[in-house]
Design brief:
This protein is mainly alpha-helical. The chain has helices spanning about 5-20, 50-60. The chain is about 40% helix and about 0% strand. The radius of gyration is 16 Å and the shape is elongated.
């Protein structure tokens, strides 16, 4: 699911928690997100297309 949609994650997690508490077994919630920063301090992120981070911040930042 879209991990940047706060309300969707909250709602879905609540539903899954209720299912587990009702005895329906374990579940896995996979939330896909965008990483705004590099892998380490000073990472120049040359492996990302130009403008990808700016576009993600403008359109996907929750």
């Amino acid at each position: 699911m879209d991990g940047l949609d706060f309300f969707a994650v909250y709602r879905t997690a609540g539903e899954l928690i209720a299912q587990m508490r009702a005895g329906h077994g374990p579940v896995l919630l996979e939330c896909k997100t965008v990483r705004f920063y590099g892998h380490f301090e000073g990472d120049t992120q040359v492996y990302r297309p130009t403008g990808e981070v700016a576009k993600a911040r403008a359109n996907q930042d929750c």
